[in-house]
Amino acid sequence: xxxxxxxxxxxxxxxxxxxxxxxxxxxxxxxxxxxxxxxxxxxxxxxxxxxxxxxxxxxxxxxxxxxxxxxxxxxxxxxxxxxxxxxxxxxxxxxxxxxxxxxxxxxxxxxxxxxxxxxxxxxxxxxxxxxxxxxxxxxxxxxxxxxxxxxxxxxxxxxxxxxxxxxxxxxxxxxxxxxxxxxxxxxxxxxxxxxxxxxxxxxxxxxxxxxxxxxxxxxxxxxxxxxxxxxxxxxxxxxxxxxxxxxxxxxxxxxxxxxxxxxxxxxxxxxxxxxxxxxxxxxxxxxxxxxxxxxxxxxxxxxxxxxxxxxxxxxxxxxxx
Length: 321
Prior knowledge:
Elements: E1 3-8, H1 14-22, E2 26-31, E3 36-38, E4 48-50, H2 53-61, E5 65-66, H3 78-83, E6 87-91, H4 99-102, E7 109-113, E8 121-122, H5 125-131, E9 136-143, E10 152-160, H6 167-190, E11 206-207, H7 223-232, E12 239-243, E13 246-255, E14 274-278, E15 281-285, E16 290-298, E17 304-305, H8 306-311
Parallel strand pairs: 1-2, 1-6, 2-5, 6-7, 8-11
Antiparallel strand pairs: 3-4, 7-9, 9-10, 12-13, 13-16, 14-15, 15-16, 16-17
């Protein structure tokens, strides 16, 4: 049995924390980021502080909890030292672990990363894999070092990608996959059977943080590109376009395979032109191909299916911009 501490903050970390709490190992404490202001607040009053998903779960589990604002000083890492851990498991914690902290656990620090390292090191591996059209992704259990997702690989599990999965669905699948692989890896680590493989610099790529501006659709791009954009940015920040001077969010869409996708626009239209409703989808002409939009949302309104949207709008000569 290992003495394990856990460091994480968002929902992606929850399956791993639950798995550790239910395992035969001893979960001795949890680190998470400090509470943050949430919402808009009211005039003259500070915004209410919101706890992280990991904090809320740790409290439900009755596990010792610490929320240092950083890990730069000995005071910041006092709880981790007190817990006398064999392993620190890190999942989307959001704070840099300096070398002094990395060296505290007897068997080091393990990280669950949502890609097949060395591909997609960095902050947004799930979205970047979808945007790039990768045909597979997965999770990596890594022995952490001082670099950005550069540590030796202890285990990986692959997951095929199709052209319908969105970032929210992939997020859920990889978080569960990572939790299961973590328990297997901890058993191997305890038994001395792990074989850490240094990462190759070949094939390394960086998954930079998503900028909201990336969510704006350019209809001169291909339908395939825009379809990936819609899926990568669901549920956040959500791909968007303009509809008669209003924001219009596109939640679900796919390439319309039954319509010609060559450069001939005679059977389609100019980029952004709405061709009409066909079955359950609104057909929109792109730089190449046609995008079938099935779920969308006008600013200040709820999400709706394409048929409901079309029923309340005049589509003659309509165009997304």
